Amino acid sequence: MGVIVGTAGHIDHGKSQLVKYLTGTDPDRLKEEKERGITIELGYVFMPTPAGGVISFIDVPGHEKFVRQMVAGTATVDCFLLVVAADEGIMPQTREHLDILRLLGVDNGIVALTKCDLVDDDMQELVEAEIVEYFEDSGFSGTPVYRVSSKTGTGMEELRKVLIRLAEETGQRHSEGKFRLDIDRIFMLEGFGTIIGGTAVSGSVSVGDELELQPGGSKYRVREMRVNENRDVKTGVAGDRIALNLVGLDRDDVYRGSCVAEPGYLQVKGSLDTSLTLLETAKPLKKYQRVRLHTGTAEVMARAVPVETDVISPGTAGYVHFQLESPVVALPGDKFVVRDFSPVITIGGGIILEAGTRKVRKKYASERTSHLIALESGDIESILEEMLEHSGIEGITFKSAEKSTSLAVDDIRNTLLEMGKKGEIELVDEGSTHRAVKRIHFDEACERLVSGFTRHHETNPVSPGLQLTEPSRILKEYPRWFVRAVVNRLIESCELEKRDDWLALSCHHREIPPGYSEAVDGVISRVDTGENMGVSVGDVQNSALARALIERGLLHELSVGVLVTSERAGTLIRKIIDRFGESGFTLGELRDFLGVSRKAALRWAEFFDSRGWTIRKGDRRYCKQL
Question: Which of 148, 262, 516, 539 is most buried (CB neighbours < 10 A)?
Answer without folding.
Answer: 148
